[in-house]
Amino acid sequence: MAEKRDIKRKRKRLKIRFGLEYPKRVAFTEDISAHGMFIITGQPERPGTLLIIDMTLPDETEVIAYGRVRWAKKVPPNLLQVANKGGMGVALLRFDKGEQAYRALVEELRH
Q1: What tens digit of pLDDT does each residue of 58-103 get?
Q2: Which secondary structure element, helix H or strand E, spans residue 62, and what is its range?
Q3: Which of 59, 72, 46 is closest to 102 using CA atoms?
Q4: DSSP alpha helices (H): ranges in the chain?
Q5: pTM for the complete prediction?
Q6: What is 10-110's CATH number, 2.40.10.220, 3.40.50.360, 1.10.3720.10, 3.90.1170.20?
Q7: Distances in Å between the alpha carbon of 44 and those of 20, 74, 80, 85, 90?
Q8: 19 vs 21: CA distance, rounded Å
Q9: Burial class (CB in 10 A: 0-12, 13-18, 19+), 108
């Protein structure tokens, strides 16, 4: 499949919490960019869903962001570790906290 996004994401595993009304489910990122991320989860939300995302960066900075699910691929939980891309691609819409630290991390990964 051809790459649809303009900006390449950089591989980075961050522990996150996400949810619809508040961030209650735990997951990990596989890759991140200034405009989005891929969240590894066996139970992705439907495309179009608005998420609240809470993450702690390696320097312990808390980031709270809102994003919209752009695509999702459901994989059985027992195959999540071996299957290709079980989870969801999320476009970041806005930040409530930690935007500068998040963008600095993305920029650091580019080099």
Answers
A1: 999 999 999 999 999 987 766 656 556 789 999 999 999 999 999 9
A2: strand 62-73
A3: 59
A4: 99-110
A5: 0.85
A6: 2.40.10.220
A7: 12, 6, 12, 11, 10
A8: 6
A9: exposed
